[in-house]
Design goal:
Layout: H1 53-65, H2 70-75, H3 83-86, E1 102-103, E2 117-126, E3 132-141, E4 147-153, H4 164-167, H5 171-180, E5 183-184, H6 187-195, E6 203-206, H7 209-216, E7 218-219, E8 223-225, H8 226-234, H9 250-258, H10 271-287, H11 289-322, H12 326-329, H13 348-355
Helix pairs in contact: 8-11, 9-10
Length: about 375
């Protein structure tokens, strides 16, 4: 039974025509700058979940309870805290120095209509020293589904790898976006644009958000990370100061929980599609706690089976290697070689079969 029971017709559908968000804007599922870049498509997965005003309040209440603890965020490599604490850390992949990170201004703007929760996703490109920089930002109002930001962002460093197969961005596309005025001019402008929509009480939602916040230079403690949320459900016994042993990808979560196929475009990922997918996964987890527990139990069993299979295979490999005849280890494997009574037609596959090795297993490949 779901926590929040609604008619099925309300779960996945387009926003009603003329629907208004709390910010006073008509809800849209596309944006104006698409026309400026006719070669770029920004996908939305299926039909984004629509929440009526009553359920928005309920979902927000439960979403607040899902925000991760400070310890969990630190363990998952989020950069938090005041300057002296931040400066001791190093971004995992982002190129922004930690002393340039900023906490969301401590000003309550709710009276002026700031969003109470925002789902975001970023696309990154590779820069020097194996780091990455922001190249696209999508942000949507978590409760209404309204698109707030959907723009390219001009990288602040020289790009050495556009990662087009994943980012969907090429140098020509970025140049076109910049010249047409469709791109934000830097990660700082992107951060400021996002901050115009929120305050320090706003909840940020997304998949593996630590990487997105790294390229935005943002410290924020009110986070619902769908990768962490689902993994914590699977590994519920692991304390927040210990790393989670595994997290599931957005693509797999969307398929398992929502029945959605995402990230299938041959033009790379869509940040907008991913932001909507993360939003809908979080909503699904809140609406369906029993189904989430069932998914987690199945995932936990699969993990145990996988570990057991690996352990057995490792043990079998070790035992099999110890059973290899000593003379075999000194054998010359050249063409026509003969040694210690082994005939020319000796095959490793014969030995593998005799010792019970898996088909095609090569013990010297480990």
């Amino acid at each position: 039974m779901s926590l929040l029971t609604l008619p099925s017709s309300d779960v996945q559908k387009d926003p009603p025509e003329g629907a208004m968000s709390p910010l006073g804007h008509e809800i849209q599922v596309s944006n104006d700058h698409d026309a400026a870049l006719p070669g770029v498509k920004f996908g939305v997965p299926g039909y984004p979940t629509v929440l009526d005003p009553l359920e928005q309040s309920l979902i927000l209440r439960y979403l607040r309870s899902k925000c991760h603890s400070w310890n969990r965020l630190q363990t998952q490599n989020y950069i938090l805290g005041p300057g002296p604490i931040r400066n001791k850390k190093t971004p995992c992949k982002g190129s922004i120095k930690t002393y340039e990170f900023r906490e969301i201004p401590d000003v309550n703007r709710q009276a002026r209509g700031s969003c109470r929760a925002i789902a975001i996703d970023c696309e990154m490109v590779g820069v020097e020293n194996g780091r990455q920089a922001l190249a696209f930002l999508s942000a949507i109002d978590f409760l209404t589904g309204e698109i707030l930001i959907n723009h390219h962002v001009v990288p602040s460093e020289e790009v050495v790898d556009w990662r087009s197969e994943f980012s969907g961005i090429t140098e020509d596309i970025m140049t076109s976006a910049s010249l047409s005025g469709a791109a934000l001019e830097s990660w700082r402008e992107a951060r400021n644009r996002l901050w115009e929509l929120m305050d320090n009480s706003t909840i940020l939602v997304g998949q593996s958000l630590n990487y997105d916040l790294e390229v935005l230079g943002i410290c924020h403690a009110k986070i619902v990370d769908t990768a962490v949320l689902t993994a914590e459900t699977v590994f519920s016994s692991i304390i927040p100061t210990k790393p989670l042993p595994r997290m599931w990808s957005l693509k797999n979560l969307a398929k398992d929980l929502l029945g959605l196929e995402i990230q299938n475009s041959n033009r790379g990922h869509s940040a907008l599609e991913d932001a909507y997918a993360a939003r809908d996964i979080a909503i699904w987890c809140i609406r369906n706690p029993e189904e989430l527990q069932m998914w987690a139990e199945n995932a936990r069993l699969r993990e145990k089976e996988h570990k057991l299979a690996k352990s057995r295979q490792k043990h079998r490999k070790g035992r099999s290697k110890s059973n290899v005849p000593a003379s075999l280890s000194n054998r010359v494997w050249g063409s026509g070689a003969k040694q210690d009574g082994y005939s020319d037609d000796f095959r490793l596959s014969d030995l593998a079969e005799e010792l019970g090795w898996p088909e095609d297993y090569d013990p010297w490949s480990d």
